[in-house]
Write a structure and sequence with these properties.
Radius of gyration: 30 Å
Distance between the termini: 112 Å
Structural class: alpha+beta
Number of strands: 8
Number of helices: 4
CATH topology of the domain at 47-172: Immunoglobulin-like
Shape: elongated
Strand content: 15-25%
CATH class of the domain at 47-172: Mainly Beta
Oligomer: single chain
Length: 191
């Protein structure tokens, strides 16, 4: 038969276990599931209001596109090949659809973010003359975004992949200062 002291110790042990369970559960507050928020747009600009897009890189090359009365985009560079404007409409649409991943509350110096001399400056002009100037700086330390400033506002981070897709047009299209690269045959060696 079990002695009385054993029952007392078992009772105390059971009370300690119940107290421990209660303490653990009461210490946890109700944690609600975080709901993802939609990323804010970088620009508050309607793509149909755009009339001109100017892209300039840090080397000084400039690409300009303008919308005609029919709504079609065309290069303002007379030397640009026709195929240079084929993909510009989706590219310009993508510009107006850029989303902010993060807005910096404490900004590092412009030199660190690559915004003292931006890699690219994109100027969007609307039909009424309003301009939005987007400065694209350096890649963030994570490698997934670019530092971006619009019209001297706070610095934001946008997707590197979206920006790279948009800038592919500017990098691939020749300018008068940067003609298309053509392969040349190596000089024949004389025996």
């Amino acid at each position: 038969m079990i002695k009385r002291t054993t029952w007392v110790f078992l009772g105390i042990f059971a009370l300690l276990i119940l107290a421990l369970v209660y303490w653990q559960r009461s210490g946890q507050s109700e944690v609600s599931e975080p709901t993802p928020t939609a990323a804010l747009p970088l620009l508050s600009l309607d793509v149909n209001a755009l009339r001109e897009v100017r892209i300039e890189n840090d080397a000084g090359s400039i690409w300009r596109y303008q919308r005609n009365e029919q709504g079609a985009w065309a290069s303002l560079d007379p030397l640009a090949p026709v195929e240079a404007t084929v993909g510009i409409t989706p590219t310009i649409n993508a510009l107006t659809e850029l989303r902010v991943l993060n807005t910096l509350t404490e900004e590092p110096p412009d030199e660190v973010m690559g915004l003292k001399q931006p890699a690219f400056t994109i100027t969007l002009t609307t039909a009424n003359g309003r301009q939005e100037v987007i400065q694209i700086g350096a890649v963030t330390p994570t490698g997934r975004g670019y530092y971006v400033r619009v019209n001297d506002s706070a610095v934001s981070v946008v997707s590197k992949y979206q920006v790279d897709d948009i800038l592919t047009l500017a990098i691939a299209t020749p300018t008068p200062e940067q003609p298309l690269q053509t392969e040349t045959a190596p000089p024949a060696s004389s025996p």
